[in-house]
Write a structure and sequence with these properties.
The protein has helices spanning 24-30, 47-57, 69-80, 100-114, 126-129, 138-164, 193-202, 218-221, 223-235; strands at 9-13, 36-38, 62-67, 85-91, 180-185, 207-211. It has 236 residues and is of the alpha/beta class. The protein has a six-stranded parallel β-sheet, with helices on both faces. α1 links the parallel β1 and β2.
Length: 236
């Protein structure tokens, strides 16, 4: 029997070069307890606008989960409309602003993309996203590569502009009052364990869950474990 929670809906927010396939297993497995939607992160070139678009299309109250860039959007949603968010999940993300070096790298990637050298996620880049133990999983690697290709060059440029212009969210973390879970891969090369520990330390009552043998995409690398954590977070 399908039992959908009446407490709130769940809005999922993808990361850079990701679409709803990032959350495929969670959508499939959690739809019996809540109504799920995936936020549009493909249309805007600022985190503020992405959050505003999410709020314009979301229910009056909702649970919110964001991965990587999606976490930046989730924290901006909390800034703009904290009264509408009933619970928060932050995965593979951080609250820090890009430093000068990271912005320089992003500007270089934007320039290459505009010159027609956009390659999405190539096999050479997969080790930055996935744990080494999953690099021989042809199906998973193909999903990640195809997902980035679907997002495409123009969206990549908009998303990079949004990420490098985002504000520092650390000063706002202490004001988050909803049940919060922070999930990360222990071997994540893009957002490290220290950054997740900082999130969980500052957000009142936040719970930190670290997934072993996992990189930057835990929803795809360890879908059953992430789904179980999100189910408990939704129902507690």
């Amino acid at each position: 029997m399908k039992i959908v929670s009446h407490e709130s809906s769940l809005v999922l927010v993808p990361g850079l070069l990701c679409d709803e396939d990032l959350w495929f297993d969670q959508i499939k497995s959690l739809s019996n307890i809540t109504k799920i939607s995936v936020a549009d992160t493909l249309s805007d070139d600022s985190i503020i606008e992405m959050a505003a678009r999410l709020l314009a299309n979301a229910p009056a109250e909702f649970a919110l989960a964001g991965l990587s860039m999606g976490g930046y959007v989730a924290l901006e949603v909390i800034r703009q409309a904290p009264e509408r968010v009933t619970r928060l999940a932050l995965l593979s993300t951080n609250a820090e602003q890009d430093d000068a070096e990271k912005r320089r790298i992003r500007r270089g990637l934007i320039a290459l993309a505009k010159k027609g050298k956009f390659k999405g996620v190539s096999p050479r880049l997969l080790p930055m996203l996935l744990h080494e133990s999953r690099l021989n999983d042809a199906v998973l690697c193909d999903r990640v590569v195809k997902m980035a290709a679907r997002v495409g060059k123009d969206c990549f440029v908009r998303q990079q502009k949004a990420i490098m212009s985002r504000s520092d969210s650390r000063k706002n973390l202490h004001s988050i009052k909803v049940p919060t879970i922070v999930i990360c891969g222990r071997e994540d090369l893009l957002t490290n364990l220290r950054q997740h520990e900082e999130l969980a330390k500052i957000i009142p009552g936040a719970e930190l869950k670290v997934i072993d043998h996992c990189g930057h995409l835990p929803t795809m690398e360890h879908p059953d474990e992430v789904t179980s954590l999100l189910r408990s977070w939704m129902l507690r």
